[in-house]
Amino acid sequence: MQQLSEFPRPGKKEHTVLHKTKQMTLRVRMLLDSMLPDKDITPSQGNILGYLYRHCGEGETVTATQIHNDLRLSRATISALLKKLRLKGYLNFETAECDDRLKSITLTEKALKNQEQIDECFDYVEEQLFLGFSEDEKKESIELLTRMLANLDQALKETMYSGQKRHSSVEKILSKEEEIS
């Protein structure tokens, strides 16, 4: 039986892909919210911790600017998430050895103690997303999503160069993409 939200409204154009991706994002957030409350972190904070788990400890100095560039989140968002994680005891800031103006981010014992459980929550959600998918379907889904992101990045570039009003974070995202290319 179809849910009411699956039926198009008369006279209205349906944006199926946009609608489905928004619904997926909301459901992922709800599932993570239901799994993470005992860890006192939000899914967004978990995403930052996941990034730090992958990059800290490899001898790499991690700064807020690096997280901003790699995750494509605004500086204000990164700053707020890092501040909350520091207040909750998950990370510390230290002066970077390479530059006294930079703050290096390090994980605390609490963060390291909870790493496995937090990773398991994110792994579980990804497993649920691909439940019933073959390995080829998983690979193809990731490739298609990657292409969609590239298409949106191209559309943002075209919008920027056409003189239309744009947000400053769009320029930063696209300049980072050009550096990678």
TrEMBL record:
The keyword Transcription applies. Gene3D superfamilies: Winged helix-like DNA-binding domain superfamily/Winged helix DNA-binding domain (1.10.10.10). One of its GO terms (biological process) is response to stress. Keywords: Transcription, Transcription regulation. One of its GO terms (molecular function) is DNA-binding transcription factor activity. This is MarR family transcriptional regulator. SUPFAM superfamilies: Winged helix' DNA-binding domain. It comes from the Bacteria.
